[in-house]
Amino acid sequence: EPFAVVLADDLIKGDTGAVQQLITASSNNEGPVIGLEAIEPHQSRAYGIVEIRERIGENVIASNMVEKPNPEDAPSNLGVVGRYLLPYEIFEVIENLPTGSGGEIQLTDALAVLARRDGVLGVSLQGQRFDCGSKLGYAKANIEYGLEHSEIGNNLRAYLAGLVG
């Protein structure tokens, strides 16, 4: 039975939830499905980057993944965002992995094994992504959601206007 993994440092605001986008895209796919975002070359050191085997509209089949490569070594400009739909088989792969980047076992390394073997479906996620792993990204997410909140939106807007006005 597939299961979702949602990393807390990525918040994706959109009409359709990121996990639902993965589920929808996986209707004809039994393997792993991962969320992707186009990134700038200098950002590659902060992402797992996919190597593209095939493009399917805005989505891709990844043939490999590299965790946090230098820009000159990045196989594409598509970074893995913290949303995954994974088969149970991933645990068997993880058990057989050596430690990777930073001396840790990396999910990207396990996905790379499956990508090289069968390919991994990468879905270009629709919506605004907030990097809540950074202080600024976390603040932006709170402000965006706060401004839309029915109870505090107007008061927050007035407060922010007073700060910058």
Order of H and E elements: EEHEEEEHHEEHH
How would a crystallographer describe the biggest sheet? Answer: 6 strands, mixed
> What name does CATH use for the topology of the largest domain?
Spore Coat Polysaccharide Biosynthesis Protein SpsA, Chain A
Main β-sheet, spatial strand arrangement: 1-6-3-7-5-4
Q: What's the β-strand tally?
A: 8
Strand residues, percent = 25-35%
In terms of per-residue confidence, which ranges show pLDDT below 50 for 5 or more consecutive residues?
A: none
CATH class descriptor name of the largest domain: Alpha Beta
Count of discrete structural domains: 2
Class computed from helices, strands and strand pairing: alpha+beta
Provide an overview of this structure.
This protein is of the alpha+beta class and 165 residues long. 28% of the residues are buried. The mean pLDDT is 94.
Outline the fold blueprint.
Blueprint: E1 3-6, E2 10-13, H1 18-25, E3 33-38, E4 48-56, E5 59-67, E6 78-86, H2 90-95, H3 107-118, E7 120-124, E8 128-131, H4 135-148, H5 153-164
Parallel strand pairs: 3-7
Antiparallel strand pairs: 1-6, 2-8, 3-6, 4-5, 5-7
Helix pairs in contact: 4-5
Features:
alpha+beta; Spore Coat Polysaccharide Biosynthesis Protein SpsA, Chain A; six-stranded mixed beta sheet; two-stranded antiparallel ribbon; 8 strands; globular
Give the gist of this structure:
The protein is α+β, with helices and mostly antiparallel strands and 165 residues long.
